[in-house]
Write a structure and sequence with these properties.
Elements (H helix, E strand, L loop, with lengths): L6 E4 L3 H12 L5 E4 L15 E2 L6 H14 L3 E2 L2 E2 L1 E2 L3 E5 L2 H17 L4 E3 L1 H7 L10 E5 L3 E3 L1 H14 L3 E3 L4 E6 L5 E6 L2 E4 L2 E4 L5 H7 L6 E11 L12 E4 L4 E6 L2 E6 L19 E2 L3 H14 L1 H5 L2 E12 L5 E4 L6 E5 L5 H18 L21 H13 L14
Parallel strand pairs: 1-2, 1-15, 2-11, 7-17, 15-23
Antiparallel strand pairs: 3-10, 4-5, 6-10, 7-9, 8-9, 12-13, 13-14, 16-19, 16-21, 17-18, 18-19, 20-21, 22-23
Length: about 400
């Protein structure tokens, strides 16, 4: 392996791949991407793939709009990684409908296409729904569904074509810094690599890698489950829009001839034990009993699900932060170290835009959007202990779909 690179990116998931590709497009081609396992493993390999763009503030929403703009043009071996099927956020209560109205105004502010639908219009878009307690929905036509490994694979291909080197099965064991605290080298099980710029894009492993660099990264792995149904004859050839019913805590997307169904339970389960060392430890054993509350809610809202056998259950680990916001940008306590993680189940939605922003930030000093609420500087140098991080992250997870009275927060 090479013994020097101008920039080292740790992590070859969708965020790390996007960062490397965008750096090369900006002329920084002496980039080495390290991955402890196979390329495109980890959370990217099992993401449910719902791409939503509207979030809590203008900067983040536009970051996700950048992702969609990129994904529209990405293919791998002739296969598209993105389907622009649109998305519905259903209002099953009057309070949720009022939130949808606020979100519509916010979308217009961001330049994001959106429209408010009546109950009848909602059923026309998603006829599998029951009309009971249906107050309407907000529809985002440019949202869609992604196959994350295809998107990441396309970005790895394009990055390699521009000169970026990817090193799979290469574990980072130490990070060397100068007496002044600046990054000096990354030590791996394949050798030492001198560098002056290091990007940590390692998902649930980011706190572990951060500690090697003396950087506090406040996130915790959370168990996030979803199921896939058996094929359903009721599904149309043209995929239905993605649908979220936050009042009932679940989401659903059509994938080929079956449905993918997940959600956010009120009793979240963080992964408190050390991450096991095995092939793709971000996938854990599916817990059907713990998923039953979400499945029951979906069966009540979608009668077709009540009749459908469950073909597969996935329990994937997702990174959740203490405040529900991404962790992006330079590490204040360690010059030359950058962070891109803590996506709170938005990793695929964010990966494309995050890569563009981090690359622009490193090369030109400006990410292109106001990312103040996602900067590590928002913590003011405060370091949280593991128990506090877990407690706060659980609070984010269990309230993920709550109505926010004044702000336009849109999760999922």
């Amino acid at each position: 392996m090479q013994d020097r690179a101008q920039i080292v990116v740790i992590g070859a998931g969708i965020a790390g791949s996007s960062i490397a590709m965008h750096l090369a497009q900006l002329g920084r081609k002496d980039v080495l991407v390290l991955e402890q396992g196979e390329l495109i493993s980890g959370t990217t390999s099992h993401a449910p793939g719902l791409i939503g763009q509207m979030r809590s503030h203008v900067g983040l929403t536009r970051l996700l709009m950048d992702s969609v703009n990129l994904y529209r043009g990405l293919q791998l071996d002739g296969v598209s990684g993105f389907q622009e099927v649109g998305s519905l956020r259903v209002a099953s209560s009057a309070a949720r409908l009022a939130e949808c109205r606020r979100q519509l105004a916010f979308a217009k502010k961001c330049g994001l296409q959106a429209e408010l639908l009546t109950p009848a219009e909602t059923l026309d878009k998603f006829p599998l729904l029951t009309g009971e307690s249906l107050h309407g929905a907000i529809f985002m036509p440019t949202d869609g569904s992604a196959t994350a490994p295809v998107l990441a694979g396309a970005m790895i291909r394009d990055a390699r074509a521009l000169g970026v080197t990817f090193a799979p099965h290469t574990a980072v064991t130490a990070i060397e810094k100068s007496a002044a605290g600046a990054i000096r080298a990354v030590v791996t099980d394949k050798g030492r690599v001198e560098t002056e710029t290091l990007v940590i894009a390692t998902g649930i492993w980011s706190p572990v890698v951060g500690r090697l660099a003396g950087v506090s990264i406040p996130l915790t792995p959370m168990q996030h489950q979803y199921v896939e149904t058996a094929p359903l004859a009721e599904l149309p050839a043209k995929p239905l829009p993605n649908m979220r019913d936050p009042d009932n805590l679940f989401y659903v997307r059509q994938k080929q001839d079956f449905l993918v169904l997940g959600g956010y339970e009120r009793d979240p389960r963080p992964w408190s034990t050390p991450i096991p060392r095995r092939e793709n430890p971000t996938v854990q054993t599916f817990d059907a009993a713990h998923f039953e509350s979400l499945l029951g809610a979906a069966r009540s809202r979608l009668p077709v699900v009540a009749e459908a056998p469950i073909a597969r259950g996935v329990n994937g680990l997702e990174s959740f932060t203490t405040d529900g916001a991404f962790l992006l940008g330079p590490a204040p306590e360690s010059p030359g170290v950058w962070v891109a993680c803590g996506f709170c189940a938005h990793g695929v939605s964010g990966g494309g835009g995050v890569g563009k922003a981090i690359a622009q930030w490193i090369v030109g000093g400006d990410p292109g959007h106001d990312l103040t609420t996602m900067s590590l500087e928002r913590f003011g140098g405060q370091a949280f202990d593991a128990a506090t991080i877990e407690r706060l992250a659980c609070g984010v997870y269990r309230t993920y779909y709550d109505v926010v009275p004044e702000a336009p927060m849109l999760a999922g």
